[in-house]
Amino acid sequence: MKPRAEGEEKAAAPAACVWGMLLACAGQSPMVSSTTLRTQGRWKISSNSSGSKVGSCRRYITLSLYSVLFSIHMLSGAKAAAHIIAQLVSPKQPLSRAIPRLSSHPFSRFNLNLVKRAMSASAAAKRLEGKTIVITGASSGIGKSCAFEFARTSPKNLKLILTARRIDTLKEVAAEIQKEVGDGVKVLPVQLDVSKPEEVRQFVPKLPEEFRDIHVLVNNAGLVKGLARAPEIAEEDMNTMFNTNVTGLINMTQAILPIFKSRRKEEGGAGDVINVGSIAGREPYAGGSIYCATKAAVRSFSDSLRKETVDSRIRVIEIDPGQVETEFSVVRFYGDAEKAKKVYEGVEPLTPDDIAEVVVFAASRRENVVIADTLVFPSHQVSLLPTSF
């Protein structure tokens, strides 16, 4: 084979560095060491498979840095990425000092904010890694989107327990998640009607042992029935809304809270309770008195629970969406899809994914950060709009 000229080897080296980073992300475990310095004008990449020492100044670049450098590669080219590896990463220069220099580096034609976002995404994945997350109402809408968002954010060593009444739909969701992110996320579909206290009481005892160490509870299950006004509100509708939106949420929280309190007892426990509320819990409207009352109850319960657990590492988080296009209106109008569709005519509502991103963001903050109360609107909304219903 014809030997490669020195100039050709130099030209190929930056691309080789980047491909080394990509292989590392894929689990091949190569590394780029600080001895990626020029040796007689050549670049060197070492692999830890050899076990050899490449000088005392070797420094391993972590997966987070691989992600950052890949962003540099995409925006500024392979040469920039490789040059930054060689010039900025050394045992004498920590990454915290190296990164600020990137924006003034002669090869860096990229947006530093993108690099910071890449590092932030990696931090979120790390914080969620190894956790078990329960999501109620996960067969559709916000709950389903939350399941996907958690899986995409932390696709390695994560467990998801998805609950809803429709077990066949849950199994389809579980299959879709595993097809997308692989075996790093274990998904357990569980048929559960939160409005039935006995089912909730049996929820934790019936879980497989490996899924019982729950870290995050997303209380998402909820519904609305009709637009009736007093005194014409059906008793069955009242019971359905209160049993699901209020009693079901509280029962689920009480079922999971002992697990949180048993963790790190010296700190009073640890875990996240994330309650999906609604703008309706803040601004009641005509024709929604019962639904608004249930969401106001969720808000009061969340505020009280936060105060009751303030001396612990248990975080109580409430996220109140404005107008979101889900099956919500279809259920409200007793399955009348055409009538439900008219609710969103002429406006651009939020999507379930929008709310899921907020849920996952809140769950993946540093432990001392509590996103206690969040109100999320689409751009056309400034308060509850009665005309939307």
From TrEMBL:
Family, similarity comment: Belongs to the short-chain dehydrogenases/reductases (SDR) family.
Keyword entries, A-Z: NADP, Oxidoreductase
Gene3D superfamilies: NAD(P)-binding Rossmann-like Domain
InterPro entries, per the entry: NAD(P)-bd_dom_sf (IPR036291), Sc_DH/Rdtase_CS (IPR020904), SDR_fam (IPR002347)
Superkingdom classification of source: Eukaryota
GO molecular function list: oxidoreductase activity, acting on the CH-OH group of donors, NAD or NADP as acceptor
Protein name: Oxidoreductase
CDD domains: SDR_c5
